[in-house]
Amino acid sequence: MALSRGTINEFLEWAARVPHGEARTVREQISLADKEGRGGDLAAGLFAALDERPVPDFGRHLVLLATIGALRDARALPRLEAFVWSEEPMFPPPNQAGGDATSTGDAKSLLNFRMALQARAAEMLSYLATDEARRATLRIAADHPERPVRAAAIDAHLYNQGDTAEAVREVLSVVRPEDAKLVGLPRLTAGMSAAEFDRRVNAFYDQYPEERPPLPERGPGPGERPRTPPPRERGGASSPEEAGPDVQ
Q1: pLDDT class for 127, splitting at 50, 70, 90?
Q2: Count of domains in the chain?
Q3: pLDDT tens, 84-119?
Q4: Which structural domain range is residue 207 located in?
Q5: Of residues 13, 82, 87, the one with CA closest to residue 51
Q6: Helices (H), the chain
Q7: Please, what is the Cα angle at 83 between 245 and 123, to 5 degrees?
Q8: Do residues 65 and 152 make contact, with C-beta atoms less than 8 angstroms apart?
Q9: Is 32 inside any structural domain?
Q10: pTM
């Protein structure tokens, strides 16, 4: 599927259906678009799609962010940085037409869609692999108000700097004390078995049991009223300080 400004929607739909094992085909099409000089006009179209509000589809926006990152166009840096730090609503509230209650991560979902998109944007910003992108990623790792986004920036910085000892020292010098444990989180890499990854994840939670996320509870069935939690349970792990890190 050729990628150009006029085929962005079709390309994103196609890329979302490509099996993970064939992801190289998607990267080749993005690289081909850049080599054939379609990058400038294409980037403008991708940036316009990134700024679309409300976000039309969570999965589509993940693929869109990955496409922007894969182009490695330096002009993407301010657009990705603005997206990461944006405080404007990205999804319609659930009581509006087209609203999705899971968009903000309420009781119907453990996933906060907004934070997930901003975390992905932080990863793609780091992937630009420029000095300015490196500094921007470290600012996110240090100062972003949402812990999952900071965790994504920390891991992305280490990954794109080759997991060197220098990169570890650099990120440790800027992160919050409570985030130091997020430096070097388990990462599933090529050649690593699922069993080994699970072992590393469990080892992290054994070392830091306070980071283990709570088990999900069964929601109310048909005709049942949702349980109202006692005051001490309200909020749960919704605050950045209490939420477990995303180690996937």
Answers
A1: very high
A2: 1
A3: 999 999 988 766 645 554 444 444 667 899 999 999
A4: 186-211+244-248
A5: 82
A6: 8-17, 23-35, 39-50, 58-71, 76-85, 113-127, 131-143, 147-160, 165-172, 194-207
A7: 45
A8: no
A9: no
A10: 0.81
